Amino acid sequence: MTYDLELNNAVDKIKAEDAKTVCIQLPDGLKPRAQEIQKHIEDNTEAQVLIWAGSCYGACDLPVEVNNVGVDLLIQWGHSAWR
Fold it and tell me: pLDDT tens-digit profile of 32-69?
């Protein structure tokens, strides 16, 4: 299955927020694309990307632990369109 990850939207948001440390959270089905996402973001922004490898059961499953490592922005991807 092909997903539009909207990476340019993520880059725009990171730049708008002037985020320096970004955490990306992916469901299991998208975790194989984590390095692709990380590379795109780091190549197109000044941000460092951390990949959340823990669970992701939907938009309500936020990794609150990222507050302890100084993350400026959390971006969560999912399989379904947000409406």
Answer: 999 999 999 999 999 999 998 877 666 666 677 777 88
- At 14, the amino acid letter reads I
Instruction: Kindly report the number of other CB atoms within 10 A of residue 9's CB atom.
Output: 11
Provide DSSP, 4-24.
Answer: ---HHHHHHHHHHHT-SEEEE
**How far from the centroid of its chain's Cα atoms is residue 38's Cα?**
8
* Rounded Cα gap, residues 32 and 65, in angstroms: 22
The strand pair at 48-52 and 73-76 is best described as unpaired
Contact 52, 24 (CB under 8 A): yes
Q: What is the pTM of this model?
A: 0.83
In this structure, what token pair is assigned to residue 61? 């499953």
Domains of the chain and any CATH numbers: 7-76 (3.40.50.11840)
